[in-house]
């Protein structure tokens, strides 16, 4: 029988294969709240691993474990929030470079660090956007508090005949326009 860690790694490997087949290169790699380190997330956005810390700083061993994980994935590591001042040698310049990622074949803009705090689309809504992709054909769609409208773009791309998108942040709506242009 496999131990818990080996089983988790086996499941992650199978998930990566399925996501690649769906046209997805962005996913939550480590969700600290569920995996024993609240306040830490590791998210893969295309060719970048984004580490974010939201609570107390990581210990030296935890920082080392994150760096090792990025090396295993062969991805440059970009930090947001507390740790970026403490970690030498991470891909800081890459944090400011706009990139394009894919989710279920939809192209989405990404930049690790920008005027706001959060990445331009939330990976924990990937499954919800997948439901939209399956259900949107022929329907009208209203997306309030849309942030960067990734859900709106998915709905339109998968056959919604109309979509009204609203958010209070002009900067988020600028990214929404970029999402629409990409698709």
N-to-C CA distance: 45 Å
Which spans have pLDDT < 50 for at least 5 consecutive residues? Answer: none
* Largest β-sheet summary: 4 strands, mixed
Largest sheet, spatial ordering of strands: 1-2-3-4
The SSE order reads HEHEEHEEEHEHEH
Q: Note the overall shape.
A: globular
Rg: 17 Å
Count of helices?
6
> Which range does the strand content fall in?
15-25%
- How many runs of DSSP E, i.e. beta strands? 8
Mean pLDDT: 86
Structural class: alpha/beta
Task: Describe, in plain words, how this protein is organized in 3D.
The protein has 183 residues and is an alpha/beta fold. Helix content is 37%, strand content 23%. The chain has 6 helices and 8 strands, in the order αβαββαβββαβαβα. The protein has helices at 4-22, 32-35, 60-73, 126-135, 150-157, 170-182; strands spanning 26-31, 40-45, 48-53, 77-81, 99-103, 106-110, 140-144, 162-166. The protein has a 4-stranded mixed β-sheet. It has a two-stranded antiparallel ribbon with strand order 5-6. A two-stranded parallel ribbon has the order 7-8. α3 links the parallel β3 and β4. α4 (126-135) packs parallel to α5. The protein is globular and about 50 Å long. The N and C termini lie far apart (45 Å). The model has no long low-confidence stretch (mean pLDDT 86).
Tell me briefly what this model is.
By secondary structure, the chain is α/β, with parallel strands linked by helices.
Describe the secondary-structure layout.
Layout: H1 4-22, E1 26-31, H2 32-35, E2 40-45, E3 48-53, H3 60-73, E4 77-81, E5 99-103, E6 106-110, H4 126-135, E7 140-144, H5 150-157, E8 162-166, H6 170-182
Parallel strand pairs: 3-4, 7-8
Antiparallel strand pairs: 1-2, 2-3, 5-6
Helix pairs in contact: 4-5
